[in-house]
Amino acid sequence: MPKQSHFLVVCALSTTALLPLSSFAQTTLQPIKTSLEEESFQTELVMHALKELGYEVNAPKIMTYAEAYQYVSANSGAFFAAAWLPTHQELLSSGDKDGQVYVGGSYVPQSAQGYQIDKATADKHKLSSIDQLKDPAIAKLFDHDGNGKAELIGCQPDWVCSKVIDHQIKRYGLSDTVEQIQGDYNALMDSVIDKQRAGKPVLYYTWTPHWISYELQPEKESVWLEVPFSALPENKDTTLPHGKNYGFEMNSQRIVANKELALAHPDVHRLFEIIQLKPNEVSAENHLLHKTEKGQHNTVAYMQAWITKNRALFDSWLEEAKRAKQVEASSDN
């Protein structure tokens, strides 16, 4: 989940630049995931593909994003299937000081993030940009606790995007009229939905893919707010290809793995390059997860049903991965 900031660039290992195989022969792999259940489907799908390629795969270890990158860098059989790049670039660079992390292809591409409000309020007051919240009368619309400031539902305190939001509140001159509300993100978003359903204005940070886009569909029940100018802490341009500027770069969720794993196993390397989910497929699973009673959603069963429905595509990934292994084996003979 897009919840960190964007700073340094990490060099990805390309399929045309693989070094000779190392002596590393790890066949039991260790997936890493965060406590965010919305990333479980992606992790389980990769795990299942690796098992079908003949690898033993342990149960995931649960870590923070920062810990995940450190662990992948230090452990030869480790991989993490939810690296939000370029958002996580600084975390990845900080956790990989020895250059031991390989970065795969765009597993879940076109992941947007930014600020949204309910469409009813946007239409009634002609709101399209976050800097309109400088107006105390506009900010008051989103003031639910009576302290005179608009409540912007933001990120959990340990997500770096919380720092980005605070930074942008200052850069856009909103400190006197807007405050970021932090806490458990999903619980906060449940409160957003309750307010919207009750006809109250709501203002929040979100990203795609995420279940909130099913509950408050963009252009139908919510709208993106643009920003007056790019204002990331590192001063990167956040203008999107279609010309809109939501204040954050477009992301891709990528698989990162220990470089030794990619070097020693060309089938794993190739799988991590080509496997890809559509954002709406992830959002659909996330929405089902959220709507199901806690503890009752079976992510593995959902993943298996997805494979059954998309078996030809899934098999094409496996076949291409196997071919990469065969080519490497032939070149060694």
UniProtKB/TrEMBL annotation:
Keyword field: Signal
MF-aspect GO terms: transmembrane transporter activity
Domain ABC-type glycine betaine transport system substrate-binding: 32-301
Keyword Signal: yes
GO cellular component assignments: ATP-binding cassette (ABC) transporter complex
Signal peptide span: 1-25
SUPFAM superfamilies the record matches: Periplasmic binding protein-like II
UniProt keyword annotation of Signal present: yes
The organism's place on the tree of life at top rank: Bacteria
Protein name in the entry: L-proline glycine betaine binding ABC transporter protein ProX
